[in-house]
UniProtKB/TrEMBL annotation:
YjeF N-terminal domain location: 10-218
Official protein name in the record: Bifunctional NAD(P)H-hydrate repair enzyme
GO molecular function ontology, one term from the record: ADP-dependent NAD(P)H-hydrate dehydratase activity
Signal peptide range in chain numbering: none
Length: 496
């Protein structure tokens, strides 16, 4: 798992490298610039394109000067540097690189105000104005400049972080910084790149190594962690010789309704392909034929009005919610399961019913996993006007209720009872189709049945669900839920 650090911690990692590795501060900047240029030239190899490099006065600006110098030396014929004289505070390495640029044949101009920027003719802009040193929202000349750059409507590459974009913390809905096409950032992604609002600041990002000490970075205390394939390989347990269906647990999935029986089928199918030993679907009687014809391996427990799950303890894992429908009977069933005090996976309509019963939220059994998307989450825990605030609430509630909260999004946040937040990086827009959430619930309950801890089951399920979707999306514009459910077994086999 990769630790994601705040700007202050990243600065410490820079200082650590300078103090402990045989590298001077200015050489670290040169290394960062080289890494940026390498990545940039892979994308933009046409040496005749006009490139405008905007440089601030701190180390981000220093990077920009070094980048411009390297581009000129690498055959880019039309590089022009705009040095913004907006602050008297100039960093040491900025000044060294300014002198190096002065001695080169790079074209440059010093700009004191945005009004002086007439006739900027560029195909590509490199934004090296403000980086991770940002300590307040943009205003005055800086805000005006960001607006000016955005209005040029050119392809913008940001150095480390787009000017005006906070690397962590709340992103304002009225973001007024630079809107980049791509950000090439150093050593680690910024925490905020995983928040949906980052789409206002950068379309995409790439992380390039600059030679910081990985051991030092991994030793830092942080609540934000990025799941990697190696973690999945490490958590997954192989299926053993002499094992039998009892070894892999019995999952109960309370789901489906007359018009939403598909959700029950998808969750059950996903659970099946995740490897649970036995699966019982608690479904309305109207869904029996559909279940028996499409998933003959899955047993049925018809859900009548008066259904009780007589002995929940006989199941190793229970999920409730996909396509369930909202009714008094279903609410009673949910209540009984919650009061049985056995960990549950709670999804979809079960979450919507919970939102109306704050008394039950407090009693969700410890180690349960809830899987809300943004709207379900806000119904449960109140409205939020930013994803940062929402994730902080999720972290707080996961710790308080001792449960796992899987807050679903492009990058799903998995908040654990110990306060850690695992960010899932797999998954893609081809998966944006009904039924995907039902499949995720089925995968989670499938892992729980096999006695994975709640934390591991959530981390594994999110990663594998997204990764399977990524593999399928290499050949398809859209990946449907049933196909993904079936393919889960293949991906588990590949990563086990
Ligand atoms: N040795 C290092 O520390 C390295 C730093 N690197 C670069 O250095 C950057 C960080 O540099 P700095 O810490 O010098 O900071 P920046 O260059 O991001 O910002 C410069 C200064 O601007 C001021 N400022 C902050 N917010 C402002 C606002 N809204 N309006 C006006 N002024 C504002 C602050 O006083 C800040 O120190 C990174 O993003 C990265 O690009 C890289 O060169 C890698 C090595």
């Amino acid at each position: 798992m990769q630790k994601l650090l705040t700007s202050v911690q990243m600065r410490k990692a820079d200082e650590h490298a300078i103090a402990n590795l045989p590298i001077a501060s200015i050489d670290l900047m040169e290394k960062a610039a080289r890494s940026f240029v390498q990545s940039f030239l892979r994308d933009e190899f046409d040496a005749s394109k006009k490139i405008a490099v905007f440089c601030g006065n701190g180390n981000n600006g220093g990077d920009g000067l070094a980048i411009a110098h390297l581009l000129c030396n690498n055959g880019c014929e039309n590089v022009k540097v705009y040095i913004l004289n907006f602050s008297d505070k100039k960093s040491k390495d900025f000044l060294i690189n300014l002198q190096r640029l002065d001695e080169s044949r790079c074209r440059k101009t010093v700009v004191n105000s945005v009004a002086e920027l007439k006739n900027v003719k560029a195909d590509i802009i490199i934004d090296a104005i403000l980086g991770s040193g940002l300590n307040k929202p943009l205003e005055g000349k800086y805000a005006e400049l960001a607006g000016y750059i955005n209005n040029l409507n050119k392809k913008v590459y940001a150095v480390d972080v787009p000017t005006g974009f906070p690397a962590e913390g709340k992103i304002r809905a009225d973001y007024n910084g630079v809107k980049a096409y791509k950000t090439i950032c150093f050593q680690r992604p910024k925490i905020n790149f995983f928040f949906p609002e980052s789409a206002m600041a950068t379309e995409t990002y790439e992380v390039v190594a600059i030679g910081l000490d990985e051991n030092f970075i991994q030793k830092q205390e942080t609540d934000f962690l990025l799941t990697e394939e190696a973690d999945i390989h490490h958590i997954l347990k192989p299926r053993k010789l002499f094992s039998h269906k009892g070894t892999y647990g019995h999952a109960l999935i309370v789901s489906g309704n007359t018009n939403t029986m598909g959700a029950a089928l998808l969750a059950s199918k996903a659970c099946l392909h995740t490897g649970a030993g036995l699966i019982t679907a608690c479904i309305p009687p109207s869904g029996l034929i559909a279940l028996n014809t499409t998933l003959p391996e899955v047993m049925a427990l018809p859900r009548e009005e008066f259904t009780r799950i007589e002995n929940p303890a006989k199941f190793q894992a229970i999920a409730i919610g996909p396509g369930l429908g909202i009714s008094i009977e279903n609410e009673r069933l949910l209540e009984r399961l919650i009061l049985s005090n056995q960990p549950l996976v709670i999804d979809a309509d079960a979450l919507n019913m919970l939102a109306e019963r704050p008394d039950l939220i407090e009693r969700i059994p410890a180690k349960s996993i809830i899987t809300p998307h943004m709207k379900e989450f806000d119904r449960l825990f109140g409205d939020h006007d930013s994803w940062w605030d929402r994730v902080i609430t999720a972290k707080f509630q996961a710790e308080k209720l001792k449960i796992v909260i899987v807050l679903k999004n492009q990058f799903t946040f998995i908040c654990l009872p110990d306060g850690k937040i695992y960010i899932n990086s797999t998954g893609n827009p081809a998966m944006a189709q009904g039924g995907m959430g039902d499949v995720l619930t089925g995968v989670i309950v499938g892992f729980l049945a096999q006695k994975y801890s709640s934390e591991d089951a959530a981390i594994l399920a999110c990663y594998l669900h997204g990764k399977t979707g990524d593999e399928l999306a290499t050949e398809r514009i859209v990946v449907n839920a049933a196909l993904l459910a079936e393919q889960i077994a293949v991906e588990i086999k590949r990563l086990a």
